[in-house]
Amino acid sequence: MRTKLLTMLTFFGVLCANAQTTYNLNWFTGIGPNVDLTIETGDTVIWTWTNPNHTVENNPGNSVETFSSGFLGPVGSTFSHTFTVIGANDYLCSIHGTASMSGTITVTSNLGVDESELKIFNIVSNPATDMLVIELPQSINNGQLSIHDLQGKSIHSLPFNEKQSISINVSDFNVGLYLISIESGSQKQTQRFIKN
């Protein structure tokens, strides 16, 4: 009985440690090339048809994984794929081609966020829908907060001084995963947050 319980607890611990993220992409004619994401192994991407008659499939020879939705016509159709292999996955709609509907899903083992770093802030509302609330357990002088999307584009930046908490309105952010960094002097910490 103890062995079974220990095995179950170990399995549960592994599941919790390897939390997965789901990314939602609208899929429509004219979305253009470069519909790119960088995700981690075990994450899932869901494409949703917002206009009719498409496919989602890997670009043969330019993808480490093979996936295909087949032809799906109706608006609201969805296709999902869970990525398990590290590397780049070029994908496209075979009906509309790379110039109109294509991108790359890059799968990494880790986004480079060192979870063992000294924690200088905590995200209270994660995932966030309207307000992102950050608690600073110690008063930080001359701090800089920055938020980036997974392509490295700066979304928000805020200098601050001697605050215990920061609230940021994220209601206009696109749904997805973001990286938030706080830096002060030699201290820097980066964490992930999800916008619902």
UniProtKB/TrEMBL annotation:
Lineage: Bacteria, Pseudomonadati, Bacteroidota, Flavobacteriia, Flavobacteriales
Full protein name: Putative secreted protein (Por secretion system target)
Database matches in InterPro entries: BlueCu_1, Cupredoxin, Secre_tail
Keyword list, A-Z: Copper, Metal-binding, Signal
Keyword Transmembrane: no
Single GO term (MF): electron transfer activity
Matches recorded under NCBIfam families: Por_Secre_tail
Signal peptide segment: 1-19
Tagged with keyword Transmembrane helix: no
Start and end residues of each Blue (type 1) copper domain: 36-107
Pfam families documented for this protein: Copper-bind, Por_Secre_tail
Residue ranges constituting the Secretion system C-terminal sorting domain according to the UniProt record: 126-194
Gene3D superfamilies (UniProt xref): 2.60.40.3080, Cupredoxins - blue copper proteins
